[in-house]
Design brief:
Phosphorylase Kinase, domain 1, alpha+beta, 9 helices, six-stranded mixed sheet, Aminoglycoside 3'-phosphotransferase, Chain: A, domain 2
């Protein structure tokens, strides 16, 4: 169950409530990173540094969803992610406050430990076992709404809440042959996908840009798009934009196992991510989508 996120009507109000009535923000410096939100390191008058995301006032819902995802990951007790402090609006801008993560040198077996902790997250008992595949509310994948209506089976969830909405949005890019392939794929998805043993909490957007090194030298997760699904979807995403070192995948297999025919499904999982990129960024991703459609 998601913990209610306290929201404030100004940054000053949030700082005073969280850190004490005498505290105030004295400096705000830009932090490089994502391409959707503005990011800042906010320094308080006692030297404390916190991390702030900011965007238009309508982004409060995005920040609520991000906070819910980070909280869900933290509650598994398996892998670290930033603690969310507060959200709110200030002068017409939405903000999300989190602890500031200062990086450190990676531990010697960084990738092996990361893989083992991710596997532990995937194997953790669902917070709500009866909920099935999905999540308690919709959230966001990048700037796109991600539908999380719960389903009894993984295959129906992936078809109806992942592929179908993205195809519907991207239909302007497809010709008649593409549309036939889409219909065949959605009608025969059970020929390609398998059901996991149980719904697993997945990060949902697990590429290298959403993994940072924390003060303990280990991998921390940021910017989740969580839901309960198939662990293979997370593993597939790690391979979409360059991949992680072989040591990561070897360690994951040792910790959680990985089906020998996972690679036959990998591109189908990533079809969802590529469709989302097609819908967000345009036709540069169309050839990759078509290539997967022709394969399946």
């Amino acid at each position: 169950m998601t913990t209610t996120l306290k929201e404030y009507t100004s940054l000053d109000e949030a700082v005073r409530d969280i850190f004490g009535s005498s505290r105030k923000a004295v400096r705000k410096g830009t932090v490089c990173g994502g391409d959707i939100n503005d990011a800042y390191a906010v320094t308080l008058d006692d030297g404390t540094v916190i991390f702030m995301k900011s965007n238009t006032s309508s982004s409060v819902s995005n920040f609520r969803a991000e906070a819910a995802g980070l909280g869900c990951i933290r509650r598994t007790g398996t892998i670290r992610c930033p603690q969310v402090l507060a959200a709110g609006t200030d002068h017409g801008r939405a903000f999300l406050l989190m602890e500031f993560i200062s990086g450190a040198k990676k531990i010697r077996n960084y990738w092996e430990v990361f893989a083992a902790e991710l596997a532990s997250m995937h194997m953790a008992a669902p917070a709500e076992p009866a909920a099935g595949f999905g999540f308690e509310s919709d959230n966001f994948i990048g700037s796109s709404v991600q539908i999380n209506t719960c389903h009894d089976t993984w295959i129906s969830f992936f078809r109806d809440c992942r592929l179908r909405p993205q195809f519907r949005q991207a239909m302007k890019y497809f010709d008649s042959e593409d549309k036939k392939r889409i219909t065949r794929l959605l009608s025969n998805l059970d020929r390609y996908l398998t059901e996991p043993e149980h719904p697993a909490l997945v990060h949902g957007d697990l590429w290298s840009g959403n993994v940072i090194t924390g003060p303990d030298g280990k991998a921390w997760l940021i910017d989740p798009a969580v839901y309960y699904g198939h662990p293979e979807a997370d593993l597939a995403m790690t391979e979409l934009f360059g991949g992680f070192p072989p040591a990561f995948y070897d360690a994951y297999r040792s910790a959680a196992g990985l089906s020998p025919d996972y690679s036959e499904r990998r591109d189908l999982y990533n079809l969802y991510q590529l469709l989302n990129h097609l819908n967000m960024f345009g036709s540069i991703y169309l050839s990759s989508v078509r290539s997967i459609l022709r394969r399946y």
